[in-house]
Amino acid sequence: MIEAQGLTKRYGPTTAVDDMSFTVHPGRVTGFLGPNGAGKSTTMRMVVGLDRPSDGAVTVNGRHYSQHRAPLQEVGVLLDAKAVHTGRTARNHLRAMAATHGISTKRVDEVIEMTGLTSVANKRVGGFSLGMGQRLGIASALLGDPQTLILDEPVNGLDPEGVLWVRNLTKYLASQGRTVFLSSHLMSEMALTADHLIVVGRGRVLADAPVADVVAGASGAKVRVRSPQADALEELLRHAGAAVIATEPGLLEVMGRSAEQVGDAAASAGLSLHELTPVSSSLEDAYLQLTADEVEYHSTAFGTETISGAEPANQGASR
Description:
By secondary structure, this protein is of the alpha/beta class.
């Protein structure tokens, strides 16, 4: 279990984490979501003692991380898969970690096989692909057979088979009663993997609830409308106060009006409809609504970024 109370981290005048309180319970996968600059990585670093809180405290399995005599056997951590000696082989990297805790070479072999590294175990890490580096990072986190797992973007660089493997692995570990704390920018994958969500923005907790509750709390469900008179229908609906997006010729997405209201408006104006489909809110919809006013960077219609707030110089990893 991970428990944070009033957790705060300041860098000069900038507050990266602002009075966060939350609990990550065992037996479920807890997703940790937020825009770039929201303070996710800073929070994870404070959990494992890499950053010291300015205020507040956080414990893992009832103790501060530094108080655990064998931390690898309490908490498995993947924060930066590139944080390895590139001249070592994968096997020797894991053996070196194991030696610090008296972990057997048999366990090293087990995590190598478990993470699909057998064919590259005796190759130098410097030549690894991004995906293989991620697998080694996960192997390192699993090495001590810990009760708590903290994984920051574990599917980064993995192919579809690897993404599915991480999904099944994290669910399996949670089913064993372990605590699994997982961050990702992939909303579709988080919707399939997580049981519970903690959503943060600008260092504050915006939501702390089961995935279904977060999605159910999203407002403004969409209606997909297809019409040969889409331009006229779009103008009509906008005039009535609806938000309308033309996704392709003849196809509209309408927010702020029900399917019945759209259908009645089209009928009263004598406009033909070829499709009228209510679209339920997704996790992505809910996430974007929660974080709409909390992002550090806003994209323009052309995909370029307008900076609305800068990260502190030493906080490039504060995602």
